[in-house]
Structures are given as structure tokens and as C-alpha cells.
Known about the structure:
Layout: H1 4-21, H2 26-29, H3 33-43, H4 48-61, H5 65-70, H6 73-80, H7 87-102, H8 111-115, H9 122-133, H10 142-151, H11 161-174, H12 180-193, E1 229-237, E2 239-240, E3 243-248, E4 258-259, E5 272-278, E6 281-289, E7 297-300, H13 309-320
Parallel strand pairs: 1-6
Antiparallel strand pairs: 2-3, 3-4, 3-7, 5-6
Amino acid sequence: MIDEKIRSGFHKALGAWFQAAGRSLPWRDDPSPYRVLVSEFMLQQTTVAAVLPYFARWMRSFPDVETLAAAPEESVLKHWEGLGYYSRARNLHKAAKAIAANFQNKIPAELSQLRSLPGIGPYTAAAIAAFAFDQPVPVLDANIARVIARLFDCRQDITTAAGRRFLQQAATALLHTSGGRQHTSALMDLGATICRSGPPECSLCPVQKFCRAAAPASLPIKPARKPVTRLVEWCALATKRRSVFLIPSPGPRWKGLWLLPAAEPRDAEPTATLTYAITRYRVTLHLRSTAPAADWTPFPLDNLPPMPTPHRNALALALTKPRAPIE
Length: 327
Ligand code: SF4
């Protein structure tokens, strides 16, 4: 797919650009396996900018595998509060326990051992192997997939098995025999800054002369997005003596978190309304003041348990209203 001279020229050009323009990130500047592990869990479906403050706080509270493995789940979820997709936090916690129990607190370097840990699929295992252990393995996040699809002018839908195979082979063909960390970081940064989604900045690209894309803005090819579905939810706002009544999440979606209880829809004006997006859904969440039910649990407003962001924000919004029904 690519001869050695071209590969070597590509690495030289990309490496020089990365040395000058690569992003400084806390898990890159100190790429210990634990820091990389945490960052990879946090970065799943979340932007770097959103992750940065969470990562810093996490490292202060859970500086190593041992501390995280011994932490109570409620504390782990509280530190994740606001990042969303809470199964990642629960899986990271379980992974830390498995590393403590089976690997003497040392994160394994082998892909197969990484894959055996909770929450670690092929992508995350490859990313940890590359970033933490400097292994030359193909890593295909959205940014790198876009860069590779353009570099090799991939005209297949990259979400199909054939498209994914093409990317995997192309990404493998670009690898050196060593130095996975810099190579992967550089491709990722190229995709994040120059070879962006939509029209790329090809005139600034350090590897333009290696690129085969004739119409880069049209790549990568993916199926059309599913249309947005609108949903309406009603929740109960029950407060008493500066406490709010909550219930533990009854389903898997927000397992381990506390929610405002579900309420019947009403024609009357809601106490507060907030909209939020989750995957392809746009949800309108209305709060309605009610008396507490017997099985709801009161929590002091200044010491709330971990709550999903929409419920926490809706509660905060309701409490800022002049007629917020706080006793
Ligand atoms: S030349 Fe343009 S399309 Fe090709 S890799 Fe560089 S930025 Fe992307």
C-alpha cells in the first residue's frame, strides 16, 4: 500500500510539524499508563476541552489505580458528574479494581490483557498501547479516521466492514516499527486542527504532498445522520427544609445516580423547563412542584449525591425562580 521511502518521508514531515505545533495535554506531557487510561475513558464521546478540568480534579482525588480501586462508587460518580455517559465511570472503576486484583496495580501493556478489562474495547486498548506504552499500533478515532480516509482517498463508507478494514490496513501501512505515541498524537492533532471535518486547510498541511484526496471535503464517506427525535419528560420537584427529594435511577441509563422522580404530565405551567440533547434526541424536561412520596429520599441542597447533568441543571434552574417552592 505504501513503500518505505514514502512512509519515511511522511513520518519526517508529520513528526516535524508535531514537534512545532502539537497540542500540550496533561496526559501527553506525563503519559503514565494510569493517566492515559483515565484520559481515554473520559475522552470517549467527549471533547478535550470538556475533559481537561475533570481530568485535573480526578487526578487530585484518585492519583493512582490503588486509590481509585478502593474508592466508593458514589465518590467516583460524583467526580464524573457533568461528563455524561456514566457507564464509563463505572467501567473505569471496575477496570481499576481488576488491575488491582489481577495485575498488582500495574496497567498491562498487552492488547489482549487490556481488552480483558471492563470498558476497554479495541479502540481504547490500541490508544492505551500507543500513548502509554509507545507501541506502533493503529489507532482509529474520528480524527485519525478522517485523515487516513483522505490521505488514501478512501471512497468506501467508513462505517461498513469493508470501509473499516480499509482504514485499518491503511493506518497499519503508515506505522513505523516503533514510536506509536508521537505518530498517533500527530495524526490526531492533524485531524483536530488542519484536516478538520468539512473543508480542510490543505495549504497548511505538513503531509499534503503525500495526500491522494481529490475532493477532501467530501471524505470520509458516512451514512446520513438519523433525524433528531423530540421527547418531553416531566419530573417532580419536591422540596422541604432546604432538601430535595430524589430517587435512585431505576434503569441502566443513569445507574448509580440520583434523579428527580418522574411525574405525570400536566396542562399547568411547569415550575421550570430545560432542554437537553442526548445522542439523536432533543429532550424538553419540565419540572412540576409536588408533595414528596413516601419512598423518595431527601438530600440537603448543599450536599447532593451524584445526579445527571439535565436533572441537576433543571433543579438549579427551578431554585433560582422567584417562586421556587422551598420551605
Ligand atoms: S492535504 Fe488536506 S485532505 Fe490531505 S491530509 Fe492534508 S489537510 Fe487532509
